[in-house]
Amino acid sequence: MPLTFPARCGLRAPVCAATALLASAAHAAPPAHQTFCFYDPIGTSGPGYAMARDYALAMQRHGADIQLKSYVDERVAVEDFRTGQCDAVAATGLRTRPYNPFTAAIDSIGSTTIVRDGQVDMAASYQVVQRAIETFASPAAARFMVSGPYEIGGVFPLGAAYALVNDRRISSPEAASGKRIAAFDHDRAQAELIQRLGAQPVSADITNFHTKFNNGSIDIVVAPAIAYKPLELYRGVGSKGGVSRFPMMILSYQLVLRRDRFPAGFGEKSREYWLAHQDEARRVITAAEAEIPAAQWIAFSPDDARRYTLMMREARIELAEKGLYDKRGLKMLKKIRCSLNAADAECGTSSESW
After folding, report:
1. Nearest to 162 by CA among 252, 253, 243, 283
2. Assigned domain for 301 exists
3. Residue 46 DSSP label
4. pLDDT at residue number 27
5. How much is the pLDDT for 197?
6. For residue 161, what is the enclosing H or E element?
7. N or C end of the chain, less CB within 10 A?
8. How many separate domains does the chain show?
9. What confidence tier does 29 reach under pLDDT thresholds 50, 70, 90?
C-alpha cells in the first residue's frame, strides 16, 4: 500500500516519507511468535526448563506465542540473544549484567547473605532475595527494568552458591591462600575476589568448570546445590572434601526481553508471573540441597563467618567503585538486609549508601 503525504509536505516529501516509515516501524505489531532461549545445564529434562514451558503456556493470554529453545551452554544462549537469534533469554545474572546491571546486583558477592551471631541465617538470606524480586516486579520500579531496547521480564532464584572443596581443611580465608579456584571468564568480579584471598584464579566456563574440579585440576569451585548431582561434583569433593555451608551469593535467573518483539505491557505481566512462582523455584532449591549428604557439609566457625562477611562487603564496595557492580542495586540490597537484620554493624555505617 503506497504512503500518502499531507499537501504541506511539498518538496519535503522524501523527508515525510522517511518519517512515515519510521513511525510505521515504531508502531508495528510484534511478530507472530517469539523465540525464548532458555539456559538449563540439565537441558530439557531440567526443572528450570519445565518452569519455562509453563511460563510459555501461561503467557499466551497476554498475546505472546513463545517457542522455547533449550541450551546447556549459557555462553551460547546469551550470544544468540545478542545477535538477534533470540527474542528473550534466561540466564544467570552473572551473564545478563550488561543488559541490566541494577537487577544483576542481586548476584553480587555476599549481597544477600545475612549472618546473625556468627551463623548464616539462610531463611533471612532468601528473604532478601524475595524482597528484591518483589521490588523489581513493582510498578514503581518499572522504569529501572528497562534499558534501551531491553527489559527484564522476571527474576527468580537459582540457589545459594557454595564453595565446594577437595580438602575439608580449606575452611577459612587463610586456608584458601594459594589454592586453585575456578574463575568464570565472563565475570571479572570472581577473579578479583580470588586474588584478594591470595588464591590462584583458574580460567573456566560453565561447560568445563566441573570437569576441572572433578579431575583435580582445581581445588575449589563455587556452585549452587542444583549442580551437585547433575554435574557429578561429588567426584571432585571425594572423601576428603566437602561443601561449605556459607553462601558466597544467591544466584538468580534473569529473563531479558527485546521489548519490540513482545506486545505492549508484556514485561510487567512477565515479571508478575515469575514473582507469583517463586515458591516453585524454592522447592527445587530445597530438594537439591537435601540431596547433598549431611556429612559433606562444612560448618564455618562464628569468627570465620564474620570475617567472610566483612571480606565480601569490602570486595563489593571495591568492585562497585571499579564499575563492576551497580551502586544503585547494592544500595537497595543493603536497605533490605538492614530491614531484616538491623543489629548488624553495617547498618550503622554509610557503606554502600552512595
Report:
1. 243
2. yes
3. S
4. 44
5. 87
6. strand 150-165
7. N
8. 1
9. low
Q: Which residues contact 68 (CB under 8 A, 6 or more apart)?
A: 36, 38, 49, 52, 53, 56
Cβ atoms < 10 Å from Cβ of 270: 25
Angle between helices 122-137 and 266-276 (to 10 degrees): 160
Of 101, 35, 29, nearest in space to 65 by CA: 35
For residue 76, what is the domain's CATH number? 3.40.190.170
Residue 156 sits in which domain range? 33-348
- State pTM to two decimals: 0.88
Return the C-alpha cell found at 177.
591462600
In the prediction, which pLDDT does 30 show? Answer: 67
How far apart are alpha carbons 257 and 196 in whole angstroms? 35
Long-range interactions of 57-62: CB distance < 8 A, separation 24+: 58/273, 59/266, 59/269, 59/270, 59/273, 62/263, 62/265, 62/266, 62/269, 62/270
Q: Concatenated DSSP letters for 249-282?
A: EEEEEEEEEEGGGS-TTHHHHHHHHHHHTHHHHH
